[in-house]
């Protein structure tokens, strides 16, 4: 799959506030003691099982993530998703079934005006806390690769995802080259995604932009207790 026009929007939040929403077996990952909650809008394209062709109408769609960062008992660091909103109902159901990820149906819209990406989403999934998001963002400055040990690397260079089904924890590998990043600026007009976990965001977010990234995701496996 290809991730395009992505904006990493991260806010520092209370570690204790986030940790209570994690399942047993996962520990909140922090950067120098600080936890972060991320909102990540982007466009997905070229989505298909390895070795199979893309399918018109199913392989390109918008997606919006609410995420934080965790470590399992074996010391593997990765991403924990509180929600993944997507505008492709079939993809939502396949990801929920095959990866146990909290994918939700949403009505979404995105357009590009020069370097500016306009983005809006309203969650429509039945039985789930409402969530809406609207923003305009753009890259500023030259492209760069994050340095090992930096906050930028900690936020973006994540090569595992975690999910849960009942009391079972699962882990799946993610492969991609190091992110070609740019600093970003954004006008966030609406963001009620954190209402899902009753977290209030304060202050300005840390912003990074990624124009394009080719990504492969592997099958999930159960994490040992």
From TrEMBL:
Pfam families: DUF2071
Entries under InterPro entries matching the protein: ADC_dom_sf (IPR023375), DUF2071 (IPR018644)
Signal peptide feature range: none
Source domain of life: Bacteria
PANTHER family registered for this protein in UniProt: DUF2071 DOMAIN-CONTAINING PROTEIN, DUF2071 FAMILY PROTEIN
Protein name: DUF2071 domain-containing protein
């Amino acid at each position: 799959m290809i991730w395009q026009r992505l904006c990493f929007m991260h806010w520092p939040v209370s570690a204790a506030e986030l940790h209570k929403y994690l399942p047993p077996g996962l520990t909140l990952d922090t950067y120098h003691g600080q936890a972060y909650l991320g909102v990540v809008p982007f466009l997905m394209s070229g989505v298909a099982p390895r070795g199979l062709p893309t399918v018109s109408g199913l392989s390109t769609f918008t997606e919006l993530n609410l995420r934080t960062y965790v470590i399992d008992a074996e010391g593997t660091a990765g991403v924990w998703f509180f929600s993944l909103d997507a505008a492709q109902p079939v993809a939502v159901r396949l990801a929920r079934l095959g990866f146990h990820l909290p994918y939700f149906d949403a009505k979404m819209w995105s357009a590009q005006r020069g370097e500016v990406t306009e983005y809006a989403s309203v969650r429509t999934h039945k039985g789930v806390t409402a969530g809406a998001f609207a923003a305009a963002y753009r890259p500023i400055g030259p492209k760069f690769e994050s340095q090992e040990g930096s906050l930028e690397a900690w936020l973006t260079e994540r090569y595992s995802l975690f999910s849960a089904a009942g009391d079972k924890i699962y882990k799946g590998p993610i492969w991609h080259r190091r992110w070609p990043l740019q600093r970003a600026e954004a006008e966030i007009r609406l963001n009620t995604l954190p209402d899902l976990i009753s977290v209030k965001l304060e202050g300005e977010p840390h912003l990074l932009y990624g124009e394009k990234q080719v990504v492969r995701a592997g099958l999930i496996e159960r994490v040992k207790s």
